[in-house]
Design goal:
With 365 residues, the protein is an alpha/beta fold. The strands form three sheets. A seven-stranded mixed sheet has the order 3-2-1-4-8-6-9, sandwiched between helices. A three-stranded mixed sheet has the order 5-10-7.
Length: 365
């Protein structure tokens, strides 16, 4: 019985691991374009003074300069507008949230309406571009008129932030862009933190209007682009764009991931969800295997430990690509995995009870 358990664990880890066999990052441009695109950077911001103090300087000191930087002040109560204006950004004072809209899609739509560039780059306020990052982004349009999305590399500054490891990983895998099929996979999604596209592509789907009441508008936008025949290409952001998530503490981390993770699961392609579930099940079984060590023979003890270390190696391979997660996070992956399960089922319970999560002073279904 134990042998069958171990064989099943290995198979689940191997098959589920096919979700991340083609992780790819934004390619280095062959050379700077002689006629760079007119890029409008649009940043929706609600009480983001602290984050903008990191993001805006990284944009203004970039070696490649955008055409314009637009900050949409979504009725902030802090110094978001004054700081952004002092940093040289164009400020759009967000109007009252219309009926039927969520905050971020409405802010993005207002920013796009004001933009004058040929290409639009939507950036979350908690991101940052390292040196050379904007040059890499500006090289993407040379690959064709597609929608490009980038998952920022997660900067970790405090120990509790390592609990995001599996959330970051599942967010990446749920896009379904890094399997052995690569961009040829069905239902390839988009990351919501950084999205680059031409004005023509944006207008072709009606902007953010079709996703005006979606928590994870990026999933739904991907479907609209696909229906319009516009390719979606997604990358990991190491070396191009970074983010720090939930610096306010573990409560912010809990609320932030609860906000949209069940909706993300609902919108993940079924084939991707099956493989993700298989991988997570294999990791859980690898942890359970450690509790069976007292009942195992000598060779089974070695096998159980080897399987657990194989799971840890898989975690390390992905964790290092999605964020600044150290070896200890991978070796003791049981801790962030348990946290992931707790938060996921908590969010599922809230959804079934039709309760809301409060985020930035607004209730989100």
């Amino acid at each position: 019985m134990l042998t069958g358990f171990l064989i099943t664990t290995v198979l689940l880890c191997l098959i589920g691991g096919s979700m991340f066999v083609r992780l790819r990052e934004v390619p280095l441009p062959a050379c700077m374009a002689t006629s760079p695109v007119r890029l409008s950077i649009i940043i929706p911001a609600r009480n983001e003074e602290a984050n903008l103090s990191v993001l805006l300087p990284s944009l203004t000191r970039a070696e490649a300069r955008p055409h314009e930087i637009i900050v949409v002040d979504d009725q902030s109560t802090d110094g978001t507008a004054s700081f952004a204006s002092a940093a040289g950004a164009t400020i759009i004072s967000g109007s009252t949230l219309p009926e039927g809209w969520y905050g971020k899609p409405w802010a993005c739509q207002q920013g796009a309406d004001a933009a004058t560039g040929d290409w639009l780059l939507f950036l979350d306020a908690d991101t940052e571009l390292p040196p050379g990052g904007l040059t890499r982004l500006l090289g993407l349009p040379t690959h064709g008129d597609a929608v490009y999305s980038i998952c920022p590399w997660h900067r970790i500054e405090r120990p509790y932030e390592t609990l995001s490891a599996f959330f970051n990983t599942i967010m990446v895998l749920g896009i379904n862009a890094f399997t052995w099929r690569g961009t040829a996979a069905a239902d390839v999604g988009l990351f919501g933190q950084a999205m680059l596209l031409s004005r023509a592509s944006y207008d072709a789907v009606g902007g953010h209007h079709p996703v005006r009441r979606q928590v994870l508008e990026n999933f739904h936008l991907a479907r609209h682009f696909a229906a319009a025949g516009i390719a979606c290409r997604s990358y990991l952001g190491r070396g191009t764009i970074t983010m720090r998530m939930f610096p306010g503490g573990i409560r912010d981390l809990l609320a932030g991931w609860s906000k949209g993770f069940v909706s993300g699961a609902d919108n993940t392609p079924r084939s991707a969800m099956v493989l993700i579930s298989m991988w997570l099940s294999g990791l859980i079984m690898a942890c359970i295997g450690l509790t069976l060590l007292p009942l195992a023979s000598a060779w089974q003890v070695l096998t159980i430990i080897g399987i657990y270390l194989f799971g840890a190696a898989q975690c390390a391979y992905v964790f290092f690509r999605v964020g600044k997660f150290g070896w200890l996070t991978s070796l003791f992956f049981v801790v962030p995995l348990a946290f992931y399960q707790i938060v996921f089922f908590r969010a599922l319970r809230l959804k079934k009870a039709k309760k809301t999560v409060t985020w930035k002073g607004r209730d989100v279904a």
